[in-house]
Fold:
Amino acid sequence: MGPGIKVSKGNYSKIKGCEIKQSRCGVHVTSAQPHILMNTLSNNYENGVITETINNKRCDALITFNKIEKNKHNGVLCMGENNHTQIRRNHKINNNTMAGIRAIDGATLNIIDNTIMLNFAQGILLVESTYAHIEHNLIS
Structure:
């Protein structure tokens, strides 16, 4: 079983209005620049959204106006140096088994104006060597 949607290197797709559930992960982005908006990503067996870099090739995913909930790992997992994912204005990043948003391996994030609630671990988890601009979020 793979991801609901896989977006690979150099791709500028728009993923809009989809319901993605019960996949390994909802959307898996590898060194690409998709706009992921107005989707429901729920009940996936791992993460709702994964963004990652391969061979240090830049990732500029934009994640907006989504409901990301009830995933077995994290709502959003961002990893790798040169990962500049923006997570903005998401209505719900809720009830995920681990963190709502997790950054690892040197990721640099903008996390702005989201509702991040009732995740079983952290609302936002930034591990060593990561950076985030976090502004105007509702976190509980």
In short: The chain has a mean pLDDT of 97. The CA atoms of residues 6 and 28 lie 5 Å apart.
